[in-house]
Design goal:
about 200 residues; alpha/beta; 6-stranded parallel beta sheet; 6 helices; 6 strands; about 30% helix
Length: about 200
């Protein structure tokens, strides 16, 4: 049986997300807190018009706080733009302490972010940096995500040397796609063997 321990969890939302009521990340934060995990779920500024430096600075500050917050496994969960934000921070050497597990959910292809300044990254060039900062990385995405037009395997899986978990027909894995309560993510925090395709 899996030996459950309390974790320190940092949840990072994406573009235009105001930590909406009903969104799976908001449910996740509540569910994890209710079972005793230490959870940080910050509101990133200017979500409609993200400022790259502000998002980078907040991410780094929250990672530092997570590592200062007692003991336990460190888990970082990112959705969409937050995934790209994390990859860039890792590539720039701003993530200075290793985390145990990283979950990249529906990472947006940087090529689709043309109107946002600063969010340009060659995914393949981040592989070594990511391996240094995350002991384990999991990618989960849909095969029908408009923000990953070339597919998650070609865009992120192959460049990073990872085999993505693919959820059939689930769009951007957002509230508008029916992803309110996504209980398997909370279960995955307790046990990394949980199948994230279960909704």
């Amino acid at each position: 049986m899996f030996n459950r321990t309390m974790a320190r969890v940092l949840i990072n939302h994406g573009w235009t997300n105001q930590r909406s009521v009903g969104h799976w990340q908001r449910h996740l934060a509540a569910d994890l807190r209710n079972t005793g995990h230490q959870v940080q779920y910050p509101q990133y500024p200017e979500t409609e018009h993200p400022r790259f430096d502000d998002w980078q600075n907040l991410l780094v500050a929250e990672l530092d706080i997570m590592h200062e917050a007692g003991s336990g496994e460190t888990v970082v969960i990112c959705h969409s733009l937050a995934c790209v934000n994390f990859l860039i921070a890792a590539a720039k050497g701003l993530v200075t302490k290793q985390i145990d597990r990283l979950l990249l959910v529906a990472p947006a292809d940087p090529r689709t972010l043309g109107e946002l300044d600063g969010y340009k990254v060659d995914v393949a060039s981040t592989r070594e940096a990511l391996e240094k900062v995350a002991h384990s990385t999991t990618i989960v995405a849909s095969d029908k995500d408009p923000w990953i037009p070339r597919g998650v395997k070609a865009t992120f899986g192959e460049p990073l040397g990872l085999d993505p978990v693919i959820v059939p027909g689930a769009g951007h894995l957002a509230l508008a796609d029916g992803y309110g309560h996504w209980r398997s993510v909370a279960a995955w925090v307790d046990d990394p063997k949980v199948d994230l395709r279960d909704h």
